[in-house]
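Journal club prep — side note

Before the paper discussion, L.F. wants everyone to see what a predicted structure for a comparable chain looks like in token form. Sequence:
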Amino acid sequence: LSNQDDLPPVDACIYEEDPTYQLATQVLIDHFEEERASWGGRRDVDSAKTCVIVTLDVHKVRETDDKLILWASVAENEYALYDGNKYQNVSGSWIPSRITMEKDSNGQWILAELIQADDGTRYEPSIIEFCDGDKNLARKLMAGGGGKSCDECFLMYLETNGYSGPFEVIPY
């Protein structure tokens, strides 16, 4: 039997260098952490001890003084660590998205809107819609790739937080 480690919060600056993408990544980490907290535990995983890693493959940015919009393929994975060296990708997704952030009354960036691709027959049309009809941008979002892998970023996160490898992957 393995013991699940209680992982510390994720700081996007560990693996994302660009300040704009770092900001958006952190806002999404917080969003997905909060979303997952409402799910409760699953199988033998204590959700309160897991962490969420988010990576962005950004294809377009529009920024004003008080609004930031990114069109990106968003990868987000939840990880659990056991005995300090065995990890499992508990769940995850890869979804073309439009991320809108706005400044609140204190001047801090907050997530104003997250539009993600619909499933099934609405997948492609929904992406074209949130790309404002730009089919070339929509195709880039659907193609994906090019971004850092969540696994790579998770290993950086572990090492930054004092865990040392080699790390063993536990199959899902």
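L.F.'s comment for the group: The CA atoms of residues 35 and 90 lie 15 Å apart. Keep this in mind when we get to the figures.
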